[in-house]
Design brief:
The complex is a heterodimer.
Chain A lengths: L5 H24 L6 H4 L20 H53 L7
Chain B lengths: L1 H9 L1 H33 L15 H10 L11 H18 L8 E4 L2 E4 L8 H22 L3 H32 L4 H9 L17 H14 L11 H4 L9 H26 L11 H29 L5 H32 L8 H20 L8 H9 L11 H5 L27
Antiparallel strand pairs in B: 1-2
Helix pairs in contact in B: 2-10, 2-11, 4-5, 4-10, 5-6, 6-8, 6-12, 8-10, 8-12, 10-11
The chains are: A mainly alpha, B mainly alpha.
């Protein structure tokens, strides 16, 4: 069982080795000529104005994150049922349809209230 | 304990071989993709693209990669140094880890051992694909956040919202695959598609037909997940410079570029594995050819989707962000969700009902949906000359110099010189120029 994961570990070693070697060699042979302009934040040549700690972005993104949590967990619930659906039959189907239906109602309400409308 | 160790070591060499093979196959395909994209998009834009290094310029990517080693990889002063370096490494490592469960070929006998050309055929293979896809979000967001700079932060927030939104749709599309095949193991899904579908003799049971809505959602989702045009809002050059990797340079930027293009190859490989039978295909000939042909089929099918990505980039303009999110949340997720329920009902009816369809019901329903889509799509096409309300209000505001309506008599009287396209010789408007070109 666990032996299945040995090749995955080997692939990880290969991938990590490739990335580390690339970055390492690049750091060794690449030039190093820092100057104040290079070291400042890139704002198309203007003097950097905005501090990132104070940068604001739309509250919609938080809403998307919360909706994502709900639907991602829903997807996680769907998978075990999807595998065993042949054994569960109509009973399992009914249960799942009920669950997805309840979520669907909430989803429709969310859309109706404009929760997912971008402007 | 001892037996565990023995089984570990007996798997070491085949494991290392398949790991290296997967690594090389996907890395080389990515290098070829970058070259092919530049050539194809070049052709579409009436220019040549890279054609100097190697035959047809095919070695251009290698040369570019080598050049990148000698570029300065500087770290701006304000960044969070550790995460700034970890993010590009994470991006490439996670991309390469994704392909661990994708079979690139069938069973081969080499060095006295018989094994399948897949790094690891995990029992939770499909979950592995989705898990690694989710981890990629971390690479993107860590890069944007650790840069401590406005453009990267905005790009990262956009990219994250986009990726997690379409991840749900893709996850539900994959749920339909699991529902139909009843297994999370990728080799089971591939073997399932090798069976006869029964639609007509010799028709392979590739899942794109019975699961067509899920397939369609998955394809749209994969373009959004890889943030490729027309869904490349996260690095919309005009607004965000380069999105989350604006502050990167040298090899660390190269890592992001590699992971982005590798994402195209990986998503193409996943869609081929889940919906187009993976390495399935006719196998014949002597022993060595029987081992090689599945690899050829797999690469050929994957190439089709890679070219699809490239053509999409060449043909479609970038979408607006609100439209992208609306498409994801209000169309893709509901369609995928409803399809999971409908699919389950079809399968249940099919299992209970001993009718004439004889297990062919999902395929028949899928065929019906495809035919319906083919019939309805031409009706949904918008007239390209039709103006939206916004364009009309702009036209009103412009007053006398308003934009011409489609069948505006003013247009018929007004003749604008047709400048032609590019190198066509300029001809003054004459009677042979019809007026329909004006205002389109």
């Amino acid at each position: 069982m666990l032996a299945d994961y040995l090749p995955v570990l080997l692939l990880f070693v290969v991938a990590f080795g490739f990335v580390a070697a690339s970055l390492g060699v690049s750091a060794l042979v690449g030039p190093r000529r820092p100057n104040p302009s290079k070291l400042s934040a890139y704002e198309c040549g203007n003097e950097p104005l905005a501090q990132v700690k104070g940068t604001r972005f739309s509250v919609k993104f938080y809403l998307v994150a919360m909706m994502f949590l709900i639907f991602d967990i829903e997807t996680v619930f769907v998978y075990p049922w999807a595998i065993t659906t042949a054994d569960l039959g109509w009973f399992g189907f009914g249960q799942m349809a009920l669950f997805l239906g309840l979520l669907g109602v909430a989803f429709v309400y969310e859309i109706g209230r404009g929760g997912l409308t971008w402007d | 304990m001892e037996s565990t160790l023995v089984s570990w070591w007996s798997g070491f060499w085949p494991g290392l071989f398949t790991a290296l093979l997967t690594f090389l196959v996907f890395l080389l395909t990515t290098a070829l993709l970058i070259w092919a994209e530049r050539r194809i998009v070049g052709l579409m834009q009436d220019r040549l693209g890279p054609n100097r290094v190697g035959p047809l310029g095919v070695l251009q990517t290698l040369v570019d990669g080598a050049k990148m080693f000698f570029k300065e990889d500087f770290t701006p002063g304000m960044v969070e140094r550790v995460l700034f370096t970890v993010a590009p490494m994470l991006a490439v490592v996670v991309s390469l880890m994704t392909v661990a469960v994708i079979p690139v070929g069938g069973e081969v006998t080499m060095f006295g051992q018989t094994f399948t050309l897949v790094t690891a055929d995990l029992a939770v293979g499909v979950l592995w694909l989705l898990a690694m896809g989710s981890l990629h979000v971390y690479a993107v967001f860590l890069a944007g956040w650790s840069s401590q700079s406005p453009y990267p932060l905005m790009g990262a927030v956009r990219a994250t919202a986009q990726m997690i939104s379409y991840e749900i749709a893709q996850g539900l599309a994959v749920a339909a695959v699991i529902l139909y095949t009843g297994s999370l193991r990728v080799s089971d899904i591939v073997a399932f598609q090798a069976t006869d579908s029964g639609l007509f003799p010799g028709a392979p049971n590739w899942l794109f037909l019975p699961l067509f809505p899920a397939f369609a959602v998955f394809v749209v989702g994969m373009v959004a997940e890889t943030q490729r045009p027309p869904f490349d809002l996260a690095e919309a050059e005009e607004e965000l410079v380069a999105g989350f990797h604006t502050e990167y340079s040298g090899m660390r930027f190269g890592m992001f570029m590699l992971s982005e293009f590798m994402g195209v190859v990986i998503q193409s490989a996943i869609v081929v594995t889940l919906f187009f039978g993976g390495p399935n295909g006719p196998v014949f000939g002597p022993g060595w050819l029987q081992g090689l042909l599945p690899v050829v089929w797999f690469l050929a099918k994957t190439s089709v989707f890679i070219v699809f990505f490239v053509l999409l980039r060449g043909a479609e303009p970038r979408m607006r962000y609100d439209k992208l999110m609306n498409l994801g949340w209000k169309i893709m997720i509901p369609v995928a969700l409803v399809w999971v329920v409908v699919q389950a009902a079809i399968l249940e009816v099919d299992r209970q009902w001993d009718g004439w369809t004889d297990g062919r019901m999902p395929a028949l329903v899928g065929l019906g949906i495809v035919l319906l889509a083919l019939a309805v799509t031409p009706m949904l096409r918008r007239d390209p000359t039709e103006r939206t309300e916004a364009a009309r209000s702009v036209a009103r505001d412009l007053g006398p110099r308003r934009l011409p309506e489609k069948d505006d008599p003013a247009v018929q009287a007004d003749t604008t010189p047709d400048t032609g396209r590019g190198d066509a010789p300029h001809t003054p408007p004459g009677p042979e120029h019809d007026h329909e070109e004006v205002g389109v």
